[in-house]
Amino acid sequence: MDAPESDSTPFAAVSAQTSRLGRLYQSYLDKSTPYTAYRWIGTAVLLALFFLRIVIAQGWYIVCYSLGIYLLNLFLAFLQPKIDPSLTQDEGLEDGESLPTKKDEEFRPFIRRLPEFKFWHSGTRAIAISFVCTWFGIFNVPVFWPVLVVYFCILFGLTMRRQIQHMIKYRYVPFSFGKARYNSRSGH
To answer: Cα separation of 63 and 138, whole Å?
Structure first.
């Protein structure tokens, strides 16, 4: 009385289950795409829980610092244009995809290096991973946290100053508020 052999191996079963979970995860991501404000509110709540965990536990400062550096890197990529105008000017790569620099040039929309959804997704995933790391003692490396705070503030200030100077020099604004809006009826 032999049992019938199945065609699936354990690896195939795990692969099928992983694929199914991946599709389910992607479907939830797709459904959340239009709800920008709710996504960011959820991320802010998760970040507040993470900071609360750091404050209550009085540890895991290196995890918090690493998360801050990663989020700063994501934010800078979010602020930068996909085609860097300084590189196209310096290297002579005028291929029609640069930002307009004169009033008579054709308008080209600002295309981000890192789109908003990917910024949100990567940031939320990093916060969740950092939150999980705070529950394991191996990640609680003893450091003098005021040095990390001062270093992060200096790094943030210098980096943002450089980014703002770049935005002023090449005349681009990565946000849509404060820009002129035109109606289709009146022309203005």
So the answer is: 11
The number of beta carbons lying within 10 Å of the beta carbon of residue 14 is 11
Q: Give the long-range contacts of residues 29-33, CB within 8 A, separation 24 or more.
A: 29/121, 33/117
The DSSP output letter for 1 is -
Residue with structure tokens 């990567």?
A: 122
- For 140-154, the pLDDT digits (tens) are 999 999 999 999 999
DSSP 139: G
Whole-model pTM: value is 0.76
CA distances from 160 to 52, 83, 88, 111, 164 (A): 26, 19, 22, 19, 6
3-state secondary structure of 81: strand
Cα separation, 177 vs 9, whole angstroms: 55
Cβ atoms 127, 43 nearer than 8 A: yes
* Residue pair 100/107 in contact by the 8 Å Cβ criterion: yes
Write the pLDDT tens digit of every residue in 69-122: 999 999 999 888 887 777 766 555 455 555 555 666 666 667 788 899 999 999
